[in-house]
Amino acid sequence: MTPTPPHASTKIIAMTSGKGGVGKTVVSANLAAALARTGRRVLVLDADLGLANLDVVLNLYPKVTLHDVFTGKSSLRDAILPAPGGFSVLLAGSGMVEYSRMTPEVREQLQQVMQVVEPMFDHVLLDTGAGISDVVLYTVSLAGEVLVVVTPEPTSLTDAYATIKVLATGQGRRRMRLIVNQARRPGDGRTVRQQLQQVVDRYVNPGLDSPVQLDLLGELPADPAMREAVQRRELVFETLPGAPVSIALAAIAGRMTAA
Ligand SMILES: Nc1ncnc2c1ncn2[C@@H]1O[C@H](COP(=O)(O)OP(=O)(O)OP(=O)(O)O)[C@@H](O)[C@H]1O
Ligand SMILES: [Mg+2]
Description:
259 residues; Rossmann fold; 8-stranded mixed β-sheet; globular; binds adenosine-5'-triphosphate; binds magnesium ion
């Protein structure tokens, strides 16, 4: 394995979506495991600060979360925990209404966290909440790259379009990558990308200085193995590496690490 040059491939990647429940958290966790398998140092930060559930997916019971870091009860280094898939996590709390809106304090804290972790890892995945709240938009703004997770359902497509439009107009994003999750048949990914690109070309691009380009990073099949692994609070990529969804995850990780 060729060693990764220090910081050369550091990428802060926001995993976001319009609609909730499309698979951002399970895809972030499993993709992190797939990237870790290639020798990359990976951190997943639970950016769903008020309604976190990365800990649930990973079966972790954190004593220290980002909330403790923000309130000075813990150092950032103590809050970075090892996860089962060979990557690191920064977890958040649940039911914390104080994180339902982005305050200047939290904004600054998050920014500082990113500055510290960026040089420590090859990839930092931000598992954001769904939608276009100020919390989500701010966490996405910290990332160099945006990965929009979308399923082929019409509601998910509509909400993904809204997110893409807001990120294009509000953050000047011109390239965004798609992971089409819960694909029903091979080729759903290409179809979804094409549909979204068409709507963006028609309704968003005419008003912009340069056009928004959507790239398909990959598609992940709807796979009962994924659902069952979530029930057991295990990573499908770890426990069932031969499952269709795990093979597709490895392919996506391969594309992300290709030179
Ligand atoms: N490829 C897949 N095949 C089968 N089931 C899947 C797949 N991806 C996700 N799921 C199911 O969808 C559920 C929701 O996933 P997850 O919690 O990751 O969504 P989310 O986008 O993070 O939700 P939220 O918006 O609430 O943060 C999972 O518990 C799992 O059962
Ligand atoms: Mg989630």
